[in-house]
Amino acid sequence: MTSARSMTARLHRFALTFGLLFVAALTATHVQGQEPSAVPSGATAQCRDGSYSFSKHRRGTCSHHGGVAAWLTPNSTNNGPLSRDTGGTSAPALPICGGKCGVERWAVKTLSDQDRERIRLRDTVNTTIEALVALQRPVILSGKTRADPVEVTVYRMEARLLRLFGEADGDYHLVLASREDTTITMIAEVPDPGCAGACASGFAETYAHVRQKLLDYLNSPQSQARPLVRITGVGFFDYNHGQWGVAPNGIELHPVLDVEFP
What we know:
By secondary structure, the chain is an alpha+beta fold.
């Protein structure tokens, strides 16, 4: 029995590792055939640990990554030269937002829609997968507006992380399962901060931070097979097209705003 459990744990660990390698390959290039770039579209600063920040304000930028190594855009307060520009001439700023990555309800998925101001960001609701998959799915889903009250609510729950892999639209796709019954699953997604919509949402740095936290933990010695994760995100109903781990009602946490490994 012990040997069988050990083998199962190794297989789960392998599946997560394979997913992480796939994610790393996706993040090395842009989606939909775009040429790879050394600097992600929309990045405003490079941190001392080599990661990039998408913060629109300088205060607190790279605070979790050792501080700022170099600013990549002009100072928004004085429109001065780039910090990397040692020749005394100002280089053009990087594009404010990246290329097109996704299609279906993309603005809603990335918090770049007109309804995002209605989201109750400071009023997080603690819940479970069981409760979310039991919610009534709207009869009609608008491509541009949110379905009340679910899609204007921020939820927090604990679940088992079964899978993590990169999607063609740049999202990190998380398959989550109930702590009590791993056959009850749903999806959570973290947008690529360099994609259109995501980088214009004001949450690009949040997305980048969450994605890095996932990779840091899952690549660490403390990582376990099917780890317990505490995840916070906005409720979202997706179209069902056979996604891996999709809930019967299509409920997701999309986008994810925070992740912890308790």
